[in-house]
User: Which sequence fits this backbone?
């Protein structure tokens, strides 16, 4: 995995009308070049504010055909890599009030997420927001269509439901949302209720504490992210199908790469 502290030098910049610095030719930027390969094309870049809770961060996004790269501008000529996300494991939504506190302009914002992360992407104009939303939704959809496998077994543990714990293994596709999985689990467990009555929590070795999913996320992408990262060269966005087939037993993964899904009452 590439170091998040690596600095990249951008030799030429221009001042855009929105008041942010951007490379004249993003393809010539060393950060962009470091992610280029024979089956990946650079598409778009731009400045954005990413908001989570009370925190607001100024970031620069670089979109590729299969990957989103998030960077921080250290100066007019340097970018610091913060994170990268596979588009097949990402999602978009509009529940901004669930992700950040304070007011956000819905004309310029939407929720952007990937495994273990939800944030509000706030752009400088409605036009920029629509451009990014359109490209991201289109690329996410296309990458999911190419994804392999299309469904995986997902173990759901029910806690604080009745007098004992239950667990069921569901067949979950790459387009099933957390709310979809909740409904499937309730049906399989014979529990009355709806997705409003329950939350699906993730216990991830990447995080210090369990966290609840809002409902729009893709549990498939969350689990597959852990599995892909456990494989050799796990930072690559695509994995060999033969490698993936033997990796579904996440209990065999290192603790920091394991994840569990727990169903709990919303209250």
Assistant:
């Amino acid at each position: 995995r590439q170091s998040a502290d690596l600095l990249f030098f951008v030799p030429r910049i221009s001042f855009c009308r929105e008041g942010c610095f951007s490379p004249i030719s993003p393809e010539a930027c060393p950060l962009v070049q470091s992610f280029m390969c024979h089956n990946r094309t650079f598409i778009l870049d731009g400045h954005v504010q990413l908001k989570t809770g009370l925190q607001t961060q100024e970031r620069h996004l670089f979109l590729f055909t299969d990957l989103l790269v998030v960077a921080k501008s250290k100066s007019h000529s340097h970018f610091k890599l913060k994170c990268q996300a596979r588009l097949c494991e990402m999602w978009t939504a509009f529940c901004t009030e669930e992700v950040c506190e304070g007011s956000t302009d819905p004309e310029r914002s939407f929720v952007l997420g990937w495994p273990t992360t939800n944030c509000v992407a706030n752009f400088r104009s409605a036009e920029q927001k629509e451009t990014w939303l359109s490209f991201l939704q289109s690329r996410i959809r296309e990458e999911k269509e190419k994804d392999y496998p299309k469904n995986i077994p997902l173990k759901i543990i029910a806690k604080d439901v009745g007098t004992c714990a239950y667990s069921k293994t569901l067949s979950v596709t790459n387009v099933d949302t957390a709310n979809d999985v909740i409904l499937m689990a309730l049906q399989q467990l014979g529990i009355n209720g709806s997705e409003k009555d329950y939350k699906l929590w993730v216990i991830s070795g990447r995080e210090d504490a369990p966290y609840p999913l809002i409902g729009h996320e893709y549990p498939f992408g969350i689990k597959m992210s852990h599995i892909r990262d456990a494989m050799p060269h796990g930072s690559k966005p695509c994995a060999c199908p033969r490698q993936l087939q033997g990796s579904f037993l996440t209990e065999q993964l290192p603790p920091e790469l394991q994840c569990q899904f727990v169903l709990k009452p919303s209250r």
Summary: The helical segments are 30-35, 96-99, 126-146, 178-189, 219-230, 241-245. The longest helix spans residues 126-146. The domain at 26-146 is CATH 2.30.29.30 (PH-domain like).
